[in-house]
Amino acid sequence: MRTEQDPRSTAGEVGVAGDPDSGRERGVEGGPLVVLVGAPGAGKSTVGMALAQRLAVPFRDTDADVESALGMSVSDIFLEHGEDHFRAAERAAVLAALADHPGVLALGGGAVLDPDVRAELVRHWVVYLNVSSSDAARRVGLARDRPLLVEGPRTRLAALLKARRPLYEQVAAVTVDTGALGIEDVVASILIEHAGRVSR
Predict the structure, then answer these.
(1) Which pLDDT tens digit goes with each residue over 135-164?
(2) Which CATH number goes with the domain that contains 109?
(3) Distance of alpha carbon 32 from the chain centroid
(4) For the chain, how many structural domains are there in total?
(5) Neighbours of 89 (CB within 10 A)
(6) Which of 120, 119, 131, 117 has its CA nearest to residue 183?
(7) Residue 194 contacts residue 124 (beta carbons within 8 Å)
(8) Which of 25, 60, 83, 122 has the highest Cβ tally under 10 A?
């Protein structure tokens, strides 16, 4: 299921197709064509790489940017420096990528927790990859490389989704439910919305 949302709306409100204030009109010159947000296990990296290939543009993952900047994995950053240190580095990486990455950009699941990131995201064309906690837990598995999910991934995912879903919906122009769809179907859904956006 796909929904088009007004970037000024409260979470979950659906915008009117063709409205000049709708999410179709988002986009910052020099910024990403598409920004993907969603919970761990939503498929942001996998979908993002496939989408970038179809659009013939580069793909970028801000978790990878943080790892490159700090010289260690996300799990090691959490272990050695704590979540606050990671979030500060994540904020810097996301804002930098939103400013200059010209392709498809996938954000870490918790990037939307930062108010400055959310304020910037409403200027971009953001796709929320929605996933249920059960589907996310199945995809994530034991989650050894996901520090917030090491203890009881299913329970933690349910809690994360409950807390973050309103934030994902707040920044999204489009929502794609990924639970029952394969990667190619998700990509096709995004491409249809993107084509409608750029044709206006």
Answers:
(1) 777 766 544 444 544 555 677 778 888 899
(2) 3.40.50.300
(3) 12
(4) 1
(5) 19
(6) 131
(7) no
(8) 60
